[in-house]
Amino acid sequence: MTPQEMESRIVRYGELVPCKTAFIDAHTPGSDQKENFTIIGGGVSESPDQHVHIKDTPGFNIGAAGQPPKCRNSLHSHRTAEVFFVLKGRWRFFWGRWGDAGEVVLEEGDIINIPTGIFRGFENIGIDYGMIMAILGGDDAGGGVQWAPQVIEDAKDHGLVLGENGKLYDSKKGQFLPEGVKPMPLLTEEQLKAYPEPTTADVIPGYVARYWDLMALADKTPAKVIGENAALKDKPGFEVDFISHKSASDTQVTSGRNDVLMVMRGHWKLTWEGGESVLAPGDTCAVPPSLTYSLVPSMSGEASLYRVRDTDDAAGATWKP
Fold it and tell me: Could you tell me which residue ranges the Cupin type-2 domain spans (predicted)?
């Protein structure tokens, strides 16, 4: 693989293209300043304005959300896995029908595998622009989002309507529901009863891992975060490992799987037959299954990254206590 071919598989943090109208709450006060990024795969965006950096999916999607302080993402539910790690800032994740069943605050490097089938939201509670990186289960993550009824009602008051076809229509741009397309129906009270309300104590032990705990676990070998015999619950169609400067190896490997490298801290030297490149914090690299490569920090000091790899497991299961 030539350096040019590999560069086409690397999405640089500084070159990310945001979409400011990705979801139904894009005009709702409190959520109207957020930016969404579709890095690998189309993600779950409901807007035609999104820019997809790498279209081919490796069994999962990669995205990101950038938000200024006090900006939040509204309550919604996923049928497949939604995993976040904090790249920049301080974030509060909350869940439940009204967002008050439980919550957890994540710092930089922390990771959460939010249980499927529950309403969840998140907000930047830091003092600067924050960024969280997302991993979504399955090749086709679209159509798997269900919004809490109050989110759809609030959005309608601010000019955005979600059609039953899953597409978003913005009256501020002169867009309206096409003939024959009805608005997305609201969940009934009976349907809402099927959405679990796990407490903070239910979620944190099996679904949240702290950055400095993972640094300690990755002292000699990569720490298993999600997957077989991993720190967090569920096998959602991909596995996640955490690699630190201490557990990195310059040994050449061919995983036979799709490896996606997501840098948290430091600069990493990626070497393969045909070239080399350096990955910086916030960069995402999609390594093809057949490529033999090595990855080590390019300088001394703290360095860490998350490696996501596709598996043969299903793309997510519903929440079980």
Answer: 69-126
Dihedral sign from CA coordinates of 279, 282, 283, 288: positive
What confidence tens digit (pLDDT) does each residue in 29-72 have? 999 999 999 999 987 666 677 899 999 999 999 999 999 999 99
**pLDDT above 90: percentage of residues in the chain:** 74
Give 60's strand partners. 137
- The residues spanned by each domain of the chain are 13-208, 210-310
| 107 conformational bin, left if phi > 0, alpha if psi -120 to 50, beta if neither | beta
Cα–Cα distance, 261 to 86 (Å, whole number): 15
And the tokens for 29?
């006060």
- Residue recorded with tokens 């939604």: 82
Architecture of the domain spanning 210-310: Sandwich (2.60)
- Same CATH topology for 13-208 and 210-310: the answer is yes
Class of domain 13-208: mainly beta
Task: Please give the structure tokens belonging to residue 314.
Answer: 């299903």
The Cα–Cα gap between 183 and 319 comes to 28
Rounded to whole angstroms, the Cα distance separating 152 from 145 reads 12
Encode burial over 56-89: b for 16+ CB neighbours within 10 A, e otherwise. Answer: ebbbbbbbbbbbeeebbbbbbbbbbbbbbbbbbb
The pair phi, psi for residue 84, each rounded to 5°, is -125, 145
The DSSP call for residue 171 is G
